[in-house]
């Protein structure tokens, strides 16, 4: 099933469904350093190549918070374009991610149920795996979202038009 441009709704998911997310993203040294400094992470393994060279990894590790943000982002158009996050569970980093690696993602629908308190939405739980260019899994997590049912997705009915410059 191809993802509609406006994203999937509750009715578009079924348990066991596996979705290969179409985009990959190569992580650069700038991505890693900027994210690490932006978040005030002082662990030198992310931004000090000399220090990292003396670790078991021999080079800088990509900040794990960046990794979860990136893999989540790769899944949004297919899984949560029409949803809000309720939580991440069982986050695992089985293999390091390095600068220069390209990350891909896939998700599997684990469960879905109607919301008890919001009849226009449902609760969707899925497992997402992020893997590198070699197919090695670098991140796994379960994510639960509150997703809109068909016909209830908020829409902007009047998009502003661009003003022409004289």
Automatic annotation (TrEMBL):
- SUPFAM superfamilies xrefs: Thioesterase/thiol ester dehydrase-isomerase
Gene3D superfamilies per record? Hotdog Thioesterase
Q: What is the lineage of its organism?
A: Bacteria, Thermotogati, Deinococcota, Deinococci, Deinococcales
Which InterPro entries does this chain map to? HotDog_dom_sf (IPR029069), MC_hydratase (IPR048274), MCH/BMMD (IPR052342)
Q: What is this protein called?
A: Molybdenum cofactor biosynthesis protein MoeC
Give the source's domain of life in one word: Bacteria
Q: Sorted alphabetically, which Pfam families does this protein's record hold? A: MC_hydratase
